[in-house]
Amino acid sequence: MTAAEAMAILQSDPEWVRKAKERETRRKIIEAQLKAEERPILEELAAVGCKVDFISVLVNSSTSYPEAVPVLCKHLPLPYDPKIREAIARALTVREARGVAGGVILAELQRSPEQSPPALRWALANALTVTADPSLTEEIKKLLLDERFMDVHERLKLALKKSQKTVSPRAKP
What we know:
This protein is mostly helical. The protein has helices at residues 3-11, 14-47, 56-59, 69-75, 82-91, 102-111, 118-131, 137-145, 153-165.
C-alpha cells in the first residue's frame, strides 16, 4: 500500500476527518497565541534593526545579528511560553552571543525546574556550548555534579570543554 492509498483510506473515515480538523484548529489557535505572546520581542528586535516574523527565523539565519543578542538576553528570563523561551535560547546559540549571553543562559538553566520541557532544557544547555566563556567554568562544573541536570549532562560536558578554550570576543585585542 502506498502512502497516497493509506491517506485516501483515512480521509474516507468521517471520524478521522473530524479529529484531523480538530487538531488543525487547535494548532492554529496555539500558533496565534504564540505569535501574540512573541510580539513584544519582535517589536524590540525590529527597533534594533533585526526585523523577523518569528524568533525561530533567527535560528536558521545565515546572517549575523549581534544587535539582537541583548534583546534576546533581556527576554529569555521572562515568563513566556516554553516554546518561545526555547526559540530564544536557540537564537542565542551563535558566536555573537559568546561572552555576552552565557551568564543569562546558565542562570535560566539553573532555575529551570526539572519539570521544564526537555526541549527547553536541552536548548539552554546546548546554547552554553557556544556562549560559555571561562568565567562560567566553575558553575558548569557544579551543574555536572548535580543529578537534576543528568538529562543535559552531555551538552554540559561539551560546554565545559569549550568554555575552557574560549576567549570572549570582548577580550580580544
